[in-house]
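Training component of the fellowship. As part of building independent skills, the fellow (R.M.) carried out the full modelling exercise for a liganded target. The chosen ligand was flavin-adenine dinucleotide. The inputs are recorded below so that the supervisory panel can assess the work.
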Amino acid sequence: MNIVIIGCGFGGVEVASKLSELRKRSKDLDISMIDRRTRLEYQAAHPEILSGKVTPEEISGDLNKFAAKINAEFINEAVVNIDFEAKMVKTKEEREIPYDFLVFSIGAEQTFFGIPGAEERSYSVNTLKGAIETKNALDKLDYSKKIRIAVIGAGLTGVEVAGELVDYFKDKKASAKIYLVELMPRVLPAFPTENVATYVSKFLSDRSVEILTGTAVQEVNEHEITFTGGTELSYDVIIWTAGIKQNSLLENLELPKEKGWLKVDPYLRVDGMKDVFAVGDTAYFENEGVRAGQNVEEAGRQGKLAAENIIRTMKGKKLKRYRAKNTIQNPRAFISLGNDKAAMYFGGMMFKVFAYLVKKFVERRYMKRFR
Ligand SMILES: Cc1cc2nc3c(=O)[nH]c(=O)nc-3n(C[C@H](O)[C@H](O)[C@H](O)COP(=O)(O)OP(=O)(O)OC[C@H]3O[C@@H](n4cnc5c(N)ncnc54)[C@H](O)[C@@H]3O)c2cc1C
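Fellow's submitted model of the complex:
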């Protein structure tokens, strides 16, 4: 049996790990891990690349080495198509990889919502490469004049980036104005209660970040951002932290989708398919009106269960139902704010003491599996 995992981020790595563990009892099982990158990226730490608190090596892990450790094959290629009839994965490099079971764990991509000029003129921290390029752009600025940085989108990543920028410019002893722009009426709009937004807004404002809520970007020109209503903001660097969209691989695949994401059944199989699973950001899982969030915790938990259900299918056993924990309706997260401070949001409540230390502990413990 060949199990092929497309995408080796938080979800894919967990599928492979769990399969390898369960395989001890079923030896005739090959695991192929495919990724267009060579390293797993710990995206939650990307904002800290800007302030130099972490290095790219510390927050990314060698997938080849990881695969070797768990006795899986790692294929560093980009998947461009899948023939579900022939059960064959096709890569850009024109390789064809047969599968008995397939797992989609291809994550999400950044979206610029088609706003003119946004993609061409913005930096991003969604990928490690993007975070390094953003840091390089900051390093090249002319510090003899007042610098203006616009962070677009005040979700989790946006507030973290703003916090790290404050630390970056403090270290440089440079004068910079940081704007945090948000379409919705408050920062962290995906968090259902206001406590965390109020705390984070005050924390960042006290560190001189200017927060512009209820502000929509209409167009990005060479030197200015135009907001709806015609107001303009001149900038030196834009960092785009607003919104994700489905992986473009899904566009040409005729699969059941919900809002563009891959719709999965209660067992994490792509709806209507018995041999194709989907986990992590790319999957749309909903149970009794509660939708799984797109976060590290869900990707990992889904990865483990998908692996178990693959083995159960092979053995003709009853499959296990998935229960989401970190949901859209009730999210939980660490939010780092710069200056070695963070807030932990859990069950609608916020905890500040030791939150940054706990966040860093979780990150280091996770990355240990790649050492
Ligand atoms: C900047 C940033 C900060 C974040 N902060 C947090 C946080 O603090 N807490 C939290 O819980 N979540 C956070 N998230 C979200 C979290 O990173 C994702 O939910 C998580 O990575 C999802 O895991 P995944 O396995 O679905 O996708 P990913 O981890 O993104 O992995 C997808 C993999 O698929 C590969 N891939 C994609 N397409 C192809 C293809 N065609 N062929 C081959 N390989 C392919 C990619 O190269 C990638 O390695 C953050 C995300 C970002 C971008």
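The panel noted the following from the submitted structure. The chain has a mean pLDDT of 96. Residues 290 and 329 are 7 Å apart (CA to CA).
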